[in-house]
Write a structure and sequence with these properties.
Largest sheet: none
Number of strands: 0
Order of helices and strands: HHHHHHHHHHHHHHHHHHHHHH
Shape: elongated
Number of helices: 22
Radius of gyration: 27 Å
Distance between the termini: 73 Å
Strand content: under 5%
Structural class: mainly alpha
Helix content: over 70%
């Protein structure tokens, strides 16, 4: 128990000091998380959870990440409760903040600065509420039920409206600050001929509320814009990837989809001092190394995206030297540049570093399996996919099929037939095209007449359908062609 003579963490004396460091402390927690300090990050955020809305959100985000990485029902329920708790905290403060702003309208310059800080708090809380709603929607989608999809879609629409409003408000405040700064600079360059009383009148209590709110410091606004730009940019980017025949319907529901604006917003967020800056960086790496190459977005040339990803990784190397996620994306770049041996080294390193993060281990194992198939190393691919089949909760049916074809390609035909029979048992989602494909192929391959050559052809078919043949070397392509 703390000594009663010492100021408590929530006391007014320490509160001002701690409030100034909230953004820095939250960023420190996220950096811990990305440098494989999951437990340390969780402990930091939970220690300061009740200190401020920002730290409460940090704790809820770590809880959410833990839930989606494990898919365990208990952790998903805990994440849901944490996010709702943070949302309630922010909503309960909003009314009092608005009243505070109204009461400051006719007060002095000092009081107007307090109004500015109150406006910052209000904007920060609104952004946090929108963030919480997005993560609550994701938890709904994971349930894969029609009612959950409808509920999740409705929550996302509310979140988008908040993001859009906050983004526009902060942009207008930024523009007001820049305009006023340029006006002051111009005034300073001119000889002073005006009555000093004019300046006192210009800052009199009659100043409008918008002018007082424009007095918020540029550093604070830059961080807030970085905070909202993460969600704002992700919305634009994700919606822009919706198939064209569905895009018009999505747009009619109030969701925009400007890919370039999304990338621009995420870039701004990644360069800010907000706690979500590292997450925006990961989102950009995900787009350039996973989404753009696979979906052939912006034309078939992915070289520009790879160069951008390499530049981002180089810029962040010093900050995240042992981050399993950043090393994973390094491996993705190497794989796309056909440096398969280097990619395997990176993925295995990331796998070892992510010892306490099972879901990150799974994405590393998935890439190890694919790189091994590209190298026609069927035994290594079999081991990676067999582990995914046993541990992953995403699509055991799909992993069972990949395990079976690689197992058969090694010559273990009896084991492959048994694995193909598992595919039918593990088939759960009739509306999932990957699982339907896996089931149909497994039905044809589980016959007693299965051959090693047929399994090898099935591996090559997968490489072709998943657009991985361009990652194969000329020697491996020749081996496939001649069946050596």
């Amino acid at each position: 128990m703390a000594d009663p003579t010492e100021p408590a963490p929530g006391s007014s004396e320490e509160e001002k000091t701690e409030r100034i460091n909230d953004a820095e402390l939250a960023l420190k927690g996220i950096n811990m998380l990305l440098n494989n300090g999951f437990k340390e990050s969780d402990e930091l955020f939970r220690t300061y959870r009740n200190h401020s809305p920002l730290m409460s959100f940090g704790a809820s985000f770590v809880s959410f990440l833990n839930a989606v990485m494990t898919f365990e029902e208990e952790k998903m329920q805990m994440a849901f409760e944490d996010l709702k708790s943070t949302e309630r905290l922010c909503e309960s403060e909003n009314a009092s903040v608005i009243e505070t702003i109204k009461n400051k309208i006719k007060r002095s310059r000092v009081d107007s600065q307090r109004s500015g800080m109150a406006a910052v708090d209000r904007l920060q809380r609104q952004i946090i509420i929108a963030d919480c709603q997005v993560y609550l929607a994701v938890l709904s989608f994971i349930k894969q039920e029609l009612s959950a999809y409808i509920k999740g879609g409705w929550i996302l629409r509310k979140a988008w409206k908040m993001y859009n409003k906050c983004y526009n408000d902060i942009t207008h405040l930024n523009e007001g600050n820049r305009r006023r700064a340029s006006e002051q600079q111009a005034a300073c360059s001119l000889p002073s001929t005006s009555d000093p009383s004019d300046s006192s009148r210009s800052s009199s209590p009659g100043t409008s509320q918008s002018q007082r709110l424009d007095s918020i410091g540029p550093e604070v606004l830059d961080r807030l814009k970085g905070s909202v730009s993460f969600g704002y940019g992700l919305f634009h980017l994700c919606i822009s990837m919706v198939p064209p025949h569905l895009l018009k319907i999505v747009n009619l529901l109030g969701f925009p989809g400007d890919r370039h604006q999304g990338l621009s917003a995420l870039t701004y967020a990644s360069e800010s001092k907000d706690m979500k800056a590292p997450l925006a960086t990961l989102a950009l790496l995900w787009y350039h190394t996973v989404v753009q190459p696979f979906f052939a977005l912006d034309g078939s040339d992915t070289q520009a995206g790879l160069m951008e990803a390499k530049w981002i990784l180089k810029q962040r190397e010093a900050a995240y030297p042992n981050s399993s996620l950043f090393i994973f994306f390094k491996g993705r770049v190497q794989r796309l540049e056909c440096q398969i041996h280097s990619a395997l080294t990176s993925f295995n390193e990331a796998l070892d570093l992510a010892s306490d993060q099972r879901e990150i281990q799974h994405v590393c194992l998935y890439e190890i399996g694919w790189c091994s198939m590209i190298e026609l190393n069927y035994a290594e691919a079999y081991r990676a996919f067999e582990r995914l089949k046993a541990e992953s909760r995403w699509s055991q049916c799909y992993y069972a099929y990949l395990t079976g074809v690689c197992q058969g390609a090694t010559g273990d035909l009896e084991g492959a037939v048994a694995t193909f029979k598992d595919v039918e048992r593990l088939f759960k989602r009739k509306n999932n095209q990957i699982e339907v494909f896996s089931l149909k192929r497994a039905e044809k391959l589980r016959s007693p007449g299965l051959s090693k050559e047929l399994c090898i052809l099935s591996v090559i078919e997968i490489l072709y359908l998943w657009k991985a043949l361009p990652n194969c070397s000329s020697a491996k392509l020749q081996t496939m062609t001649h069946g050596d």
